[in-house]
Amino acid sequence: MELIDGNAIANDLLKELSKKVESFENQKPCVAFVRVGQDPASVSYVRKKENTAAKVGIESRLLIFAETITEDQLLREISLLNEDYGVHGILVQAPLPPHMDERKIFNHVSPLKDVDGFNATNLGLLCQENQDAFASCTPAGILELLKRTEVDTTGKHVVVLGRSLIVGKPVGMLLLQKNRPGNATVTYCHSGTPDLANHTLQADILIAAIGKPLFVDRSMVKQGAIVIDVGINRIPDNTRKSGFRLVGDVNFEEVAPLTSLITPVPGGVGPMTVAMLMRNTVKAYEKSLQAGMAL
Length: 295
Ligand code: GUN
Known about the structure:
The structure is a single chain. By secondary structure, the protein is α/β, with parallel strands linked by helices. It contains ten helices and eleven strands. α2 (40-56) links the parallel β2 and β3. The mean pLDDT is 96. Residues 91-94, 116, 137-138, 166, 273 line the site of guanine.
């Protein structure tokens, strides 16, 4: 068993991006973070994204709105960011409060600034295998991990556990693409799939993205499989000052000895998500220059 070190791979990527950003002579890329409410995980993720942007030389703006903001008000705020030439990327942190239609909000972000890749245009372009589209950050990060660990996905059987718009659906779409890494046979499993283990045991590459702590156990994994754990779950832990610890969707202790490669939590997919957001922001900046939109 070998660990896939997401921190090290993300750091390499961030160094490459820093160099690129340094070479931009006038205006720097700028990403706007939109956060609604005080969900502790969202507060922590957005802080991490802000800090990473600063490290790479990307500017950021943070807009925080009360939980009570209406959907119309939030749509107006997004319109202002869409029209702002000084902002190249827009990220609306999920989850949003229950009175909002998340898809409507994501679809309102300009496709040219949609660094999360959540809106219908970019998801559609992704299905068309358009390399110019913004691919959402966690799926793109998983592909980059596989690429930089020299995993050949061609002809491999990938089983994706989960069908979310943010991870499950797009990661399967990316792995279906003819490009490398891709060209895999993809099976999607979800809460409506009977006899899950029957499917997961056939996976050469198992991607767990269901948000259920320690769900994947040793009975579900084939000897020698590659396991990518997307889960970041907080579970109570009185021995920690914070009162919680982070675990993945995979029972790492049980499953790791069976695998050829596995991502840890934390330090696996998480840092790659943030790194890909930076890469998408630089891409959005470059697109804006091509379109003659930058100041
Ligand atoms: N919530 C959980 N993951 C993500 C992500 O990648 N982007 C945004 N905007 N919200 C999230």
